[in-house]
Amino acid sequence: MSKKPLVLVPCDNRMLGEHPFHILGHKYADAIREAAQCLPLLLPCTGREDWEAYLEMADGIFLTGSPANVHPSLFGQEVHNPELPLDEARDATTLPLIRRAIALGLPLLGICRGLQEINVALGGSLLQAIHHVPGRLDHYPGGRVKEASAQQVYGPAHQVHVVPDGQLATLLEQKEITVNSVHDQGIDRLAEGLVVQAYAPDGQIEAISVQAHPGFALAVQWHPEWKALENPVSLKIFTAFGNACRLQMQKREDKSVKLSQAA
Fold it and tell me: What is the pTM assigned to this prediction?
């Protein structure tokens, strides 16, 4: 059996009753295994992990979506809605992890909160409630429907314009795509060094890449992990990420062989 790349996936923190848990949604792990053809390596997020040791094993990093938002203090704002969940321990892990991953050139894929984490990690800011901004769409339409099913929440929501000649345009070979939309927050001030790859009809940034990254470093605001094998756009994204991780695995193994030969 051929080896598969290891993809580092930071977990959420959640209280179940009186007990704290590290949590990763099945759909994210499934997308890495089935669509990217890689193996998820779960990273507990307490802010105290030796994630450098994890990085030595990892061939890519996958930043998932989450019910919890990036803490507004990290981009100079007060909390807009105190009823919404936060995950400061994940923030304390992922933001420095992102900066280190970019420095190392590790393949990087972000989804929803993951896109927002990349923007904040590099000095950008977020809109905490897009639907309160005049002229903007409601980017969480299914979430406002009482007792909505998962199929309704993750159903097609709006078009996305893909920026011509960008990394995403090259990957998808499409100018317009239809995506789901499951977020209240989004990019406000774009961090220096990020390149916009797609917009929503209201101008909200829907995809970014990292200019200084030598390889695959892409993040999208929608949720391609939802039934990824059934969606050609999602499959292209995860396949490209998986291929980048396979190249990284080969580089890592070649380096290990050279070191062992030199010893």
Answer: 0.95
